[in-house]
Amino acid sequence: MKKLFFVAGGTGGHIFPAISLGQWIEEREMKNVKIEYICGSRPLEWEIFSQNNIAPTVLPIEGSPLGVLKAGKVIRRLGSLFSAFLQSVSLIREDRPDVCVLFGGYVSFPPMLACLLHRIPLVIHEQNSVAGKVTRLAKKFGIPVLSGWQECRPLEKDQFNYVGIPIRKFKKVDRIEAWGKLYTGVDFPKGAIVGVLSGSLTSSPLFKTICELASAPDLKNVTFLVVGGKGRCPDINTLIAVERQWDMSIIYSVVDAVIARAGASTLSELMVLNIPSLIVPWRGASDGHQVRNAVLFEKETMGNFVWDEQASVFELKHHLIDCVSKVDNGTKLDERSQRGFEDRSCERIWDVLISLMRRESL
């Protein structure tokens, strides 16, 4: 039996592709492969894994020391990195993996060093179109880089292998039934439903923008469904906040269009499910990766729009009106197109892993 380490943590953008790939592999190689998931110690990480019936190995690390201004916090995080490295070494000595797959971010750093020390074959999957710090370092160590996009700046084309991003499985749900499962306390809307996928928006400028859109007379028949948000706009009944949804099938079955940040995993889901989208990249993302993700998303899809928060809200409203006016309910959540996309990305990654394991056995 082959043993794989999947190192994924920090955010859902790193974790969901790991889980999706792992489920794909286990469905096909259940008797031949064992996967051990490794994550950091943020509560969100454990919550995501537990929702998928996975008990990961938790490293004592919850953030990178880079960019931290307080000396005490830097020292604590450096200490946690060292502890995570020692735990990674212990894991390898107890149960040596055939291959370790890193899914980027600071959580990948300690296991990467431990695997290099013990000559464990490594590969890193970069979800964003701009390589993160750990990915760039991995490349310097000669670790193969698999990219979710056909671009992985600042790497050259011959320095990475495009594979795509494994996405979660979704099932189409009747719209009215799906709306009922959201427990909004509101009857199913007669007009278009726009999902807002940006987490908690209560203190962000984007939330104010959504409130402004919801109060616009020419959007009075549009319902804004804020997923994971807790904010409220006074006297606006068409803005509804619902709790974070781990099964996005319900949300994707309900919405006619989406306003979202430019996280790579979210964009991949919207792309393959063919949901009309207005993307608002967060400019504070490391290395500007959300801006570049959004540019590539707009380039690779048709009819979607990227809006800069510094631009006029009128421009966003104009494109939103155009977007909901062209809605075709029959195009949402096409399971056939999803299956084809997912299979290709997972198969490409699995081919690389098979190649590494065969090379190691020679």
TrEMBL record:
Q: Does the keyword DNA damage apply?
A: no
The organism sits in which domain of life?
Bacteria
Does Glycosyltransferase show up as a keyword for this record?
A: yes
Identify the residues that the record assigns to the Glycosyl transferase family 28 C-terminal domain, covering every copy.
Answer: 247-329
A single Gene Ontology biological process assigned to it is: carbohydrate metabolic process
- Provide the E.C. number(s) assigned to this enzyme: 2.4.1.227
Tell me the ranges covered by the Glycosyltransferase family 28 N-terminal domain, including all copies.
5-141
Q: Where is the signal peptide?
A: none
Task: Supply the name of the protein.
Answer: Undecaprenyldiphospho-muramoylpentapeptidebeta-N-acetylglucosaminyltransferase
Q: What is the originating organism of this protein?
A: Aminobacterium colombiense (strain DSM 12261 / ALA-1)
Supply the source organism's classification: Bacteria, Thermotogati, Synergistota, Synergistia, Synergistales
